[in-house]
Amino acid sequence: GKGGKLLSPASVRRELDMVSAMTKLAITEFDLQGQVVNPFEGLSVGAVSKAPQTEWERRDPLPVAVLSAMRRRLGEKVKAPELGLIWRMLEGTGCRGAEVVGLRVEDVQVDHAYPHIWVRWHEDRRVKTSVSIRQVPLVGDALVAAREALRLADGHHMLFPRYAREAGPDAVSQALMKHLRAITKDPRHVVYSLRHNMKDLLVAAGVPQRDENRILGHALGGLGDRVYGGEEARLKSAYEAMERALERRS
Fold first, then answer.
1. Is the Cα dihedral 39, 40, 44, 46 positive or negative?
2. H or E stretch at 71
3. What residues contact residue 112 under an 8 Å CB cut-off, 6+ apart?
4. Which of 8, 11, 72, 135 is the most exposed place for a label (fewest CB within 10 A)?
5. Which long-range contacts (CB under 8 A, 24 or more apart) does 205-208 make?
């Protein structure tokens, strides 16, 4: 595992499923059926606990009071502004930490008709899975924070050059958790909780699951959802969904 840490069976299962799917596609594309066996298909990795194991199940959304206190603390206690800007972008997009920390300047489109960030693979950052590659709308305070981050990053390739290293996302997570723990000791309140906050806002706003999944980078449903509309149409739909969701927060 990363840094010598052991991966859980669930994490190994996710990685193997991705490799198996890639191998299956290669066998099909190169017309190798009957000649090559997919060695990853049906491979056992041991029992996966039935207790809540996923990062999603182990987290709760942050209460409004905690959100307000965290924004205030990051504005008052942290000398370097990048940490506060990252928190605001995480809160306003529902992205995973590494997805924001690993952004390049070119991935941030603030002057577009529908301002957004591009979460995608590049040489300095791997996204989690293929469904995680997406355009995430920048609405409200997240857009303000993105503009400020661009101003600070002027002349740099990465949006947050201070954390532009392999361990950068971990360093950000640890720093944010240190401040969060000064506000709440609840073990279910973590940085990842911000994704739950966004999901709750999207659900409360009646956003279609198709758009919810596109915003959060979850697997889409049926084939119709995966191919629905062109890139601009999908972004417009997600942007308007995000606007409706964030209206409920103000």
1. positive
2. helix 64-77
3. none
4. 72
5. 205/241, 205/244, 205/245, 205/247, 205/248, 206/244, 207/241, 207/244, 207/245, 208/241
The count of residues in the chain is 250
pTM of this prediction?
0.75
C-alpha dihedral (140, 142, 146, 152), degrees to nearest 10? 110
pLDDT tens digits along 148-197? 999 999 999 999 999 998 899 999 999 999 999 999 999 999 999 999 99
In DSSP terms, which residues pair with 109 in a beta bridge?
116
Strand, coil or helix: 199: helix
Q: Strand 134-137 vs strand 108-109: parallel, antiparallel, or unpaired?
A: unpaired
Residues 129, 2: Cα–Cα separation, whole Å = 17
No. of helices (H) and no. of strands (E), the chain: 10, 3
Q: What are phi and psi of 182, to 5 degrees?
A: -75, -15
CA torsion sign for 30, 127, 110, 141 is: positive
At residue 92, what is the residue type?
A: G
How far is 96 from 250, CA to CA, in rounded Å? 22
